[in-house]
Amino acid sequence: MARLKGSNQMKVRQHNSTNIKEAIYKYGPLPRLRIAHMLGLSLPTVTTKVSDMIAAGIVREQSVEEEQAEIALGRRAVNVDFVPEAAFFIGVEVAPGRRAICLTNVRANVIYEKLYESDITDYTDTVNDLVEKISICIRETGLDKNRIRGIGVGSVGFVDSRKGIIRRFHRFGWEQCPMANDLAEKTGFPVKLDNNVRARAVGEDLTNNQPRPDNFVYLYVFQGIGCPLYVRSSLFSGSTYSAGELGHMVMDINGLKCESCGNRGCLEAYASEPAILRRCRSAMEGGVETMITTLVKKPDELTMEEVLLAYRCGDPVVCSIIHTAVCYLAVAMANVVNLINPWLLIVDAYVMQEEKIREDFTEILRQNLYGINDSEITVEFKEYDRLRGAKGAAALAIQHFFIEERQ
């Protein structure tokens, strides 16, 4: 076999380095021999890279419990793992009505987190606001800027993560906005930008205590609806970085107009939080007898908190509205599952916090699955966390700047 030369050798070394770091990150602490077996690499290759990382101060050795110890080349194996304080990362989520920010260490342990309500929609004002929030984060933690490796940003909209631009966000009127470059210039840190729902999926894959299967999907329901896809352990973004836009799956070609994109019949028009609120407010304005009229005085004051309270109390109008939304979500997800056949479906949605809603969703989903998909897919519901998007963005930065060592 011909030996690899020049740039090819560099690519192989970089590929091996990324794989070794990812293995330690997801499954560590691990002994060197197990890493070599997992990745199909030689022990000397793994040992050399681990030694380099120990010398750089980002990896350390740990003793192995007697019952877990493995023998390698006549010596008792020693685990290796990342030094949590070797570097720090900032995560930011940009979503309608709010901004979330956090600072984590290498192991994604949160050092600082804060949620801001925001009605800013202008792009330039948004960037300036984010710069201010990032400065506050650094100042309040007292962390040396030199220890911060990079910033991850998860933003709403059609995001081209390779170019670091928001190609479009219809609701705010954003077009071709170079947010990664703009934030990098104003903060002095490298910035990795991606769609906010994809950032959540990256966080789930990288930092969850239980390693995720090779193929899984992540359903997120908020102002919009997204469904990032993990295929063969990699986030699938598509040729133009628009894969996973489940909210714009057409459910009815002659249906309701979508406020996000202007098309008709999109899932978001039937099952997003704004869609649920719109139907509830319409019932109030139409004089329909419902509990929500006693919870708020005006329709525009209604939030999902009151809607779910009415649901828990068994209000028939609200229960019917939510059941319809859940039906649309479940059928749409059944289409996704039937198409790509994932092992796991993760559901991240405030509206899914009620057990009865979860049961209805799962039942309708399974009723619409083909073949044996209904018995082999696992459905997992996440507890609601308003900072999860920022944490996912921090994980995005950890993956890009630390594990993959990109700029």
Number of strands: 19
State the share of residues found in helices, binned by percent. 40-55%
Main pleated sheet:
6 strands, mixed
CATH superfamily of the largest domain: ATPase, nucleotide binding domain
Q: List the domain count as a whole number.
A: 3
Shape type: globular
Instruction: Output the number of helix runs.
Output: 14
Unreliable sequence segments: 69-73
What fold name stands as the CATH topology of the largest domain?
Nucleotidyltransferase, domain 5
> How big a fraction of the residues is strand?
15-25%
What structural class do helix, strand and pairing data support? alpha+beta
Explain the overall architecture.
Helix 2 crosses helix 3, helix 4 crosses helix 5 and helix 10 packs across helix 11. The longest helix is centred in the last third of the chain and has 25 residues. Helices cover 42% and strands 21% of the residues. It is built from 14 helices and 19 strands. The chain is α+β, with helices and mostly antiparallel strands and 407 residues long. Strands 14, 15, 16, 17, 18 and 19 form a 6-stranded mixed β-sheet that branches. Strands 8-7-6-9-13 form a 5-stranded mixed β-sheet. The chain has 3 domains: 76 residues, Arc Repressor Mutant, subunit A (Orthogonal Bundle); 137 residues, Nucleotidyltransferase, domain 5 (2-Layer Sandwich); 171 residues, Nucleotidyltransferase, domain 5, CATH 3.30.420. About 1% of the residues have low confidence.
